[in-house]
Amino acid sequence: MQPFRKLTSVVTPLDRVNVDTDQIIPKQFLKRIERTGYGEFLFFDWRQDPNFEINQPRYKDSQILVTAKNFGCGSSREHAAWALSDYGFRCVIAPSFADIFHSNAGKNGILLITLPEEQVQTLLDRAAKTENYKLHVSLEDETIHDDHGFEAKFSIDPFRRYCLLEGLDDIGLTLRHAAALDAFETQHNEKFWLTPRA
Fold first, then answer.
1. What is the pLDDT of residues 53-89, one digit of tens each?
2. What is the C-alpha separation between 40 and 97, in angstroms, rounded?
3. Taking a C-beta distance cutoff of 8 angstroms, is the pair 39, 63 a contact?
4. How far is CA 129 from CA 7, 124, 137, 144, 185, in A?
5. At what angle do helices 79-87 and 99-107 cross, to 10 degrees?
6. Can you tell me the mean pLDDT for 140-162?
7. Cα(184)–Cα(188) distance, integer angstroms
8. Can you give the pLDDT at residue 62?
9. Which of 166, 140, 136 is nearest to 151 (CA)?
10. Dihedrals phi, psi of 77, to nearest 5 degrees
11. Average pLDDT over every residue of 90-106
12. Measuring CA to CA, how many Å separate 136 from each of 19, 49, 143, 151, 197?
């Protein structure tokens, strides 16, 4: 997983509440078992509308999505995080997130930032009205700012922060203890005679 430290990007505004996981990645695309290839289906139904935010050339290559409260609600599907990540979003800012989506996003390298509704509305308005509107996000300092005077502090769970800074998903985190796991396995095989030896 790619470490997340600092990010500067154009902001895509998605001013909708209760965006559920079936809107993020519709169920008909959940047949794949790989984590990749979902980006082209992100918000599939809404993208049929040429005026949908993500279809607009001004938001091309955006890595920051700003949206309204309760983002990621609905059924549990890690594919929603995979689709956002595969499309290129590395950070989502909202007043609140659904719990399971929150966990899935963090495990897939997406920084979720919770800000008060007034601050999120300011970002939504600026991103909609200002061409090439960018935010600067620093996970190291837990700060956000733009070039027009907006500044905010945020906080995230210390363990999630560590994993994002180090680029560790669950497998990467486990592999940091590979030597200890090998030592335990060797000791276990020598200690218990019922364990078949390789």
1. 999 999 999 999 999 999 999 988 899 999 999 999 9
2. 23
3. no
4. 21, 9, 20, 19, 59
5. 50
6. 96
7. 6
8. 97
9. 136
10. -155, 115
11. 96
12. 24, 29, 8, 10, 55
- CATH code for the structural domain at 6-168: 3.20.19.10
The answer to whether the beta carbons of residues 144 and 7 sit under 8 Å apart is: no
Q: How many residues does the chain have?
A: 198
Q: Break the chain into its structural domains and give their ranges.
A: 6-168
Residue 38 CA to residue 119 CA, distance in Å, equals 30
Residue 49 makes CB contacts below 8 A (sequence gap 6+) with: 55
pLDDT band at 194 (very low <50, low <70, confident <90, very high): low
Token pair belonging to 95: 């007043």
The single residue listed with the structure tokens 């669950």 is: 170
- The terminus-to-terminus CA distance of the chain in angstroms comes to 32
Q: Within 13 Å and on the Cβ side, how many CA atoms surround 34?
A: 5
In whole angstroms, give the CA distance from residue 114 to residue 57.
27
* pLDDT score of 196 more than 70: no
Structure tokens at 108: 């897939």
pLDDT, average across residues 40-53: 95
